[in-house]
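Risk register update: the risk that structure generation would not scale has been downgraded. Supporting records follow, first protein first.
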Amino acid sequence: MQNKYSFWGLINQFHVVIPLLQRDYAQGRIDEKINTLRDQFVNTLIDALIQKHRCELDFIYGTVQNTILEPLDGQQRLTTLFLLHLYLALHANQIHANAHHFKKLSYETRLSSKYFIIALIENLPKLKTKLNDEKISVLIKDQTWFFSIWLNDPTIQSMLTMLDTIQKALERKQVESAQLIQLWQYLISNETPLQFSFIDLENFSLTDELYIKMNARGVQLTEFENFKAWFQQELSKVPNVHTDKVRNFLLNVDISYTDFLWKLRPKNTISIDHLFMTVIKCIALSRYILSDNALSPDQDTSANLISRLSNNDYLPISSYGKYIVDPEQLNSLQQGYSDLDKLFEFLIRTQREYSTLWENFQPILTDLWGSFSIKESDKGLSYLKLSRFAILCALARLYHDEPIIDGELMEGIFSSSLILVNNAKGYFNNEKEYIYVIKGIEQWVRFAYSTSIVKFNLDSKNPKHQPLLQAFSVETIQHEIIKAQKIQVDPTWKDLIRFVEKHSYFYGQIEFLLDISGDDQVKFKKNGLKASILFSDKILQDSTHILSRTLLSYSQYAPYLIKDGHNLSFCQSKHSNARDRNENWRRVFKDPSKLVILQHLIDKDLSDINEKTSLEEQTQQIIQEMENVIKRNLDSIHDWRKLFINIPKILDFSKFKQIRKETEDYYVLKGYDYRSVAWPLHLYALLIDLKEKKMHLCDFKKLEMIYWTEPQNSSVNMPAIHIQDDENIQIIIQYQQNEFQFSFYKEGILLRDFDLLPYEMREKLAQVHKSIEELTTINI
């Protein structure tokens, strides 16, 4: 037996008894994830009532004997619906009149739960007048009929929390008393939007196997099992549906697709239902975005749907039917299972026949659900991961439509698609940019096949190309075309290009290497090996900033530093995403006046890499050769660059590797803002030099950078080196008008005569002056 019911309709027909072996009511438990799910669920129920739109609450499974209904799965939803009815009945003064109906729900799990529900129904009406001033749970616990021992019952605790949640949700939506009465009347009417399907497992032969499994587990159905049951049931109701295809599809889900996912599951995972559901939601996302709904006028619905799917939140089955797979439309329903079928068939065949291509696919899948393990199921999935998965969906659809497509062409389309996604124009900052990428990648896959990448003529004025241009830069698209053209002319380019593309910093964008190598494959390979080491984490994160110092040492060129607003940046080493790369070293790669410095280093000053040596040996070779370049170039440098080259620790101060040019000096910035903490370059260089050389200064009480306020002019704070000894003599060193300036204080009083300083202090200052003499030979 399967019928549609509302909660009120169900208890009109049956006594609902939660059996002894069921678990406690848990939707009101206090837990970060459950709190979020509870709020979402209650808001969904109330919004459906207020807005009068259908809210399908999936399946309730159970058994019926005479008029007693024992739910096997659905206890949690039924209890929440009971509490919602009770709360609205309270405001409508309808609890006493309907007490007989309310008492038709009973908990047999614990006697305390059973008696609490009875007491609640009988006594709750007395609290109506006090609700405006207090949480309903507090009022209930304060009543004489409420036994304190009941607080030890998890079901009662959860019920009280759920009542508070319902109260808070209605108050937040500013539902007035008159509207609460209307909601109650609507809730118990035949038109109520809150409905579910009840399946009597004793009489529903299709689910006998499921019934045995559920009894054995003693837990509720997973989200995937619910979805599969709904999907199968809806398919069976469609006239003229291809029964054999549906049967084969469902058989594949249970056997071959399950086996495929089982072998790819994360370590220590004992169930793959959440993996199946992740794939279904990702396909649903792709289908929804490629429809005309994703950027429709109903932005709130679209944003909510995309957000919930991308976060892997629970989505009511009704949403799949309403927004993604419409059960009333045969084509939509068939397309729904067809997309899943296409994807798994494509992946399984790729794994079996195209091992090289599969090696590229597998990380996308494992990354998709590897970060979505059972323990981390509340983390959601990033737009970047979802977009990479969308490439596989697009390729699966293409493969289904064009089964003769060969692995080589598929590999080329995949590689270019992945680079486009990884370097998407908007960095996935928001949902709209993610939508653009999904639409853009679908178009790219089709264009890349139909015209082949090498013949694709990108036209910014062509309306058909707009989805591509909204998602990806012209430069990135053109670069993929150029690489494909090289590979077509000479296939030996392929392995050379793919090797460098995979570098963690280049992230597929290697146009600078093609620019400095031309059509010379030997030169490209040599340059690629050198560049791969130069931009490895080992060198980018080197404590002596070896790469920056080497590039600065070429005095015949303007400094390689990139402009960042009013600041100059040495380029940060971070590369966790495309934005990090684009805003740092990629700006050097793309600027011919800066790329020429890098080319000089790679072409002329670095030896060829011996591929037979270890990576560690290759890296040490590059580092040693860069040190030699610095030594060779140092004598020709006479400006501020020499300070950074000789004293690399200066750069450690700046979190974002930023400096700014002011009239009297360059300033080293702690952050981005010059107005926060910023030290004059010469002054800060002197401080580090003094600390590193020690020069008998170690017995000073203080040796530090400060903002100094002159006693006679308290309104001015100037950067200064502050030195203080045990006799409270202070030395203030400032850098103004291209020179170091000293002032001396004893107990706050300015000493105008240097000879008044103690002898030891004067000896130490002589050492300071030696460092200053070295620094003053360096120009701004």
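Supporting record for the second protein:
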Amino acid sequence: MSEKRRIRVGSRESRLAVEQTMLLLRKIEACHPELEFELVTLKTTGDRILDRSLDQVGGKGLFVKELDKALAERTVDFSVHSLKDMPMEQPEGMPIVALSESGDVRDVLVYPRGRERWKKEDGRPFRIGTSSARRRLQLEKLFPEAEFRLIRGNVLTRLSKLDQGEYDAIVLAAAGLFRLGLEDRIDVWLDTEQVIPAAGQAILAVQGREGEDYSYLDCIDSREAWQRARAERSFVRTLDGGCSSPVCAYAEEKDGRLRLRGLYYDESTGRCRTGEVTGGPEDGEQMGVSLANRLKHCGKVWLVGAGPSDAGLFTLKGKQVLEKAETVVYDRLVGPSILQMMPADAEKIDVGKKAGAHPVPQEEINRILYEKAMEGKRVVRLKGGDPFIFGRGGEELELLAASGIPFEVVPGVTAASAVPAYAGIPVTHRDYCSSVHLITAHKKRGCEEKPDYETLARLDGTLVFYMGLGALGEIMDGLMAAGMDRDMPAAVLERGCTADQRRVVSTVSDLKEAADRAGIVSPALIVVGKVCALADTFHWAEDRPLGRQRVIVTRPKKRSRKMADRLEELGAEVILLPAIETKTCEDGEQFDQVFEHLTDYDWIGFTSVEGVDSFFALMLKRKIDVRSLWKHRFAVIGPATGKALENRGLLPDLQPDTYTGEAMGRLLAETMHAGERLLLARSEIGTPEILKPLEEAKIDYTDLTVYRTEARAGDVEIRPGDIVTFTSASTVRSFMEMLPELDPGSILGLCIGEQTRKAAEAFGIRTVVSERADIDSMIEKLLSIKEEL
């Protein structure tokens, strides 16, 4: 009989480590009777330092360094470890050569034996022992009343401390208890959905020397364990975690797919982030890296209240946040002018409607916010009114908070105060009431609970019902049945804070019938209380000169504010819909020739503010000092262009009384002397009308394109009766390109001049033209025709 081959095997000296090693050796011996094993046990650094938590001890490989040394010195042929204790990177020349089939991966809670269990009535904290920051961070959510205390030592030592009353419970790995035959000590199973285990938990790893034959380990090597290990350990490795750090992951194969869940603790915010990814069983390495990067570079969500449609009621902070958004998730109650504040390059997701006008389910909205944040985006969830007043804001934050995704809440002006105010109803008044109560008539799906009409009817205050139009009759009947005076004033307020707002004021007994007669539709607010009787006295919004009128402003965004402010002061609901965007032209051969010989020109003419801005931007780019223009004379088409020139420290020498290209060209032809040269700095689609008088007078001119206009995309509902302002022919063309399905006969075009009017009428738009080609004249024209609309 041949002599057996002896193999020396390294292990930690704890009872659990020895039991785990012997578990593997027995399986190997059963397959290879020609082998015999000698066990060599060592005490590791992690076994010796017991007065500090693992993360406080620091370093990686606390439980393996001594065994690595023995392997390197050939004191042992291979060593056995708990995979979760091993560093993510192996020492050179000492790879992992086999992984065992996994035991039960879950953590468990163990209570003391022979002692009364902790109860809340004890009046002291629930003391849970653990040495793991990973476990503590997750258990704090499950046991908010707990006090977490350090516990170190091997499993038997920890159980002894527990039974002696030092702790009310301790957390251990189920696999270790099973391998010690102590599974009867398990009291509470902690599911992996509640507590993600350490990477590699319940898997035993065999570490050997590179270049040696370990084929005899094939009988214990597990393909599933390798799949798990690759995914979990690549996640931790990417985040630079280790066996003691609060970074953990668990991968599970099901139906041919690998699902990896991970937890990352962000020290800068003190938050834990969790996430998951799925893929093929062989893609674990890549999945771990991908999930780690998503969690580490996680974005942020801002829950922003947009107020009740009127852009003037949108908060400054909300506007600042929105203008920096990378993704905007918005609903139907957000005013169109507020939507126009979104960055042009932002991803825009409308969750207010889908095909067939079905709203996006709340769970889907929550998922969108989570996924976009996990992509590292700055996400703004834009909601009408205030997000925490019947706006489901709390529901949308639950998943974010549970996943550790950073968020902020920007409150908004709620409809309960703004909409009644615009209808002339003060929701509180010392002579009528001293309280206001907000109620939603729209319950969560599956919830049959109705408002407590008995309580509401007894309140001596104003009642404001959100989302109650469909249940208006039921609400009024419920209040009367509960004893409310049938003659109590009540109102329905439709489309508050918009040009379309309407109010119906009646009594509790007659409000439903009155609202039906008026054809009131959603969105609408219901107000019940004595203050409703003040609406006819305090109404103001519709009394403004342009009250009840929507005006679409199509000017470029940076030049639309002046017109919008004037219109809003007069009561119009202004929708900013920039039809064009202006961009300074890039360099070209013509630019080089013009700017190199700029002193050859006697006059420089500008036909727009954009022309002024672009010309001086091109000068600055070439480092040409404005003082070099000391001998030039300047012509401008109108006051706004002249003001832009004045802002550069230069005064115009010529401006026509009529602000048109033709008038400017004619005046230049009359003013310029023989031999003088003119440089026109304008748009690539500038009107040819300015050139005819110049050519007839044989003026030497250069027509330099300094900027171009580009059509913008837009998604605003244009309604019959809307007035659309056009300040150039290009705004007309771009507006119609933007809205190809629009019936041009349904709107009225307010045009700044004849060229613009001709462009609008060519599309079939009804038009009116301002007396002068300036904004003030356009507004004067609008006021003069308001009564005819």
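The chain is about 30% helix and 25% strand. On this basis the risk owner (M.S.) recommends closing the item.
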